[in-house]
Design goal:
- Catalyzes the attachment of glutamate to tRNA(Glu) in a two-step reaction: glutamate is first activated by ATP to form Glu-AMP and then transferred to the acceptor end of tRNA(Glu).
- Monomer.
- The mean pLDDT is 96.
- 45% of the residues lie in helices and 13% in strands.
- It has helices at residues 18-34, 52-65, 88-100, 168-178, 191-203, 237-242, 247-255, 270-276, 291-304, 307-320, 330-341, 350-358, 366-373, 378-391, 397-410, 419-427, 435-442, 444-457; strands at 5-8, 37-40, 104-107, 110-113, 118-124, 129-135, 139-143, 147-151, 157-160, 183-187, 210-214, 217-218, 287-288.
- The chain binds glutamic acid (GLU).
């Protein structure tokens, strides 16, 4: 089989939607999987709606996700230019071919594509007028997701508007031909256009590409019903960038919107995705966005990160919250983050989770406070543990455990008579990293000072 050539053909008119990123990703995965080429083609013929800012955001988002392209803006290639706004001459050439073959004609300033077949007129409810129709042969759209879809165009359609701009259908097909595209993976919303496209391919005497029309992305049930919109939480790639999600987690999650590996494994590295992805396994039914799943997948990727990759986004999140700065001790920061890494789902949760490591001014959870301090012996337990901690030879987790255990034995109590109180005294909450390493990291000074403060307040 000849080399696979796929393309991602966005029209950058606004923020990059997760569905757009998915189209890019599936094309990229397919190209990488098959050793083919991914072409990035910018469909910017709508001068009013396409903006430089949107293009920049799009390219930036693709790079952040790790989706690179073999031909296109910034990298060039043999079938450039890669902006449709710069391909006018080619469109003229292809238009001429249709005119020469009597497959196009001018009417009211626009140029129409001429379908083949017997012509007749019929009253059309939609246009409320007699319109000319054509008895064409149905076209068969070869779609790997939907099987063969048979459709029939019955009216000539515009390929060059009266203002001289070529139409989307026309340039889309001309470019797929000129760029030698073998597979078209795009959103299901384009399926109704595809019979027009196949008619154009036929008119140019070129075999149409293999199509894969991907299912719509549906709203998270918590946000309502129907198609996900740009306003829904989690819909924009920029949001994931701003919220410090891991790009490989976002890629993993997006890949599962309409595709899944045969064994339903959910957490996959980029290499695993490339290895296991196949357009044959794309699903037909709408793909439901699931914010909880996104968060879980992000957590799984965060847990697996080597600490040197975990640090920069973590430090950035803590920095944004004003908890750390250039003066923060690097070793201290590292041990705090090693404790947090196994516990939190996203970098945006880090500041509230870890604030007490960096400031004495952290939030106290009133429920935990009430539950722990209402016990009659709370004050006593805190008072007796303070001198023990002050007197330990060293403040590492093992020594801490031995010291507190000895105290508990002496009082004929379980060690857990102290643990929740200790945790609350130093962090203000009932949960968090493993207690003993956390105390070790905080250090004797902070731990004892916080215990004394709590004791004084009781
Ligand atoms: N510019 C079109 C879009 O963004 C491309 C459609 C296609 O992939 O053929 O929807």
């Amino acid at each position: 089989m000849s080399q696979v050539r796929v393309r991602f053909a966005p029209s950058p008119t606004g923020s990059t939607h997760i569905g757009t990123a998915r189209t890019a990703l599936f094309n990229w995965l397919y190209a990488r999987k098959t050793g083919g080429k991914l072409v990035l083609r910018i469909e910017d013929t709508d001068k009013e709606r396409n903006t430089d800012a949107a293009l920049e955001e799009l390219l930036n988002g693709l790079k952040w996700l790790g989706i690179n392209w073999d031909e296109g803006p910034e990298v060039g290639g043999e079938s450039g230019p890669y902006f449709q706004s710069q391909r006018g001459d080619l469109y003229k050439e292809y238009l001429q071919k249709l005119l020469d073959a009597d497959r196009a004609y001018e009417k009211d300033g626009a140029i129409f594509f001429k379908l083949e077949g017997e012509r007749y007129t019929e009253y059309d409810d939609y246009h409320k007028a007699e319109v000319e129709k054509v008895r064409t042969e149905p076209v068969v759209i070869e779609d790997v997701i939907r099987g063969n879809v048979t459709r029939r165009e019955e009216r000539d359609f515009v390929i060059v508007r009266s203002n001289g701009d070529p139409s989307f259908h026309f340039v889309n097909v001309v470019d797929d031909i000129a760029m030698g595209i073998t597979h078209v993976l795009r959103g299901e919303d384009h399926l109704p256009n595809t019979s027009k496209h196949v008619e154009l391919f036929k008119a140019f005497g070129v075999k149409p590409p293999v199509y894969a029309h991907m299912p719509m992305i549906l709203k998270d049930p918590a946000q309502g019903k129907g198609k996900m919109s740009k306003r829904d939480r989690g819909a924009l790639i920029e949001e994931y960038q701003q919220r410090d999600f891991l790009p490989e987690a976002v890629v993993n999650f997006i890949a599962l919107l309409g595709w899944s590996p045969k064994d339903d494994q959910e957490v996959l590295s980029i290499d695993e995705l490339i290895e296991r992805f196949d357009i044959k396994d794309l699903q037909k039914a709408g793909a439901r966005f699931d914010e909880k799943k996104m968060s879980h997948i992000n957590f799984e990727h965060m847990k697996r990160l080597p600490i040197d990759r975990y640090l920069p986004p973590a430090v950035s999140a803590l920095g944004k919250a004003g908890l750390v700065d250039a003066d923060t001790d690097a070793d201290y920061l590292k041990s705090v983050l090693q404790l947090c890494q196994q516990k939190i789902n996203s970098f945006e949760d880090l500041p509230s989770f870890a604030a007490y490591f960096f400031t004495d001014d952290y939030t106290v959870d009133p429920k935990t406070e009430k539950k722990l301090l209402k016990k009659a012996d709370a004050a006593e337990r805190i008072q007796e543990v303070i001198p023990v901690l002050e007197g330990l030879d060293s403040f590492d987790a093992i020594t801490l455990e031995r010291g507190i255990q000895a105290l508990a034995d002496e009082k004929e109590l379980k060690i857990f008579a102290y643990f929740p109180l200790l945790r609350f005294a130093v962090s203000g909450v009932g949960g968090g990293p493993d207690l003993l390493p956390m105390l070790e990291t905080l250090g004797r000074e902070k731990v004892v000072a916080r215990l004394k403060k709590l004791s004084a307040n009781l």
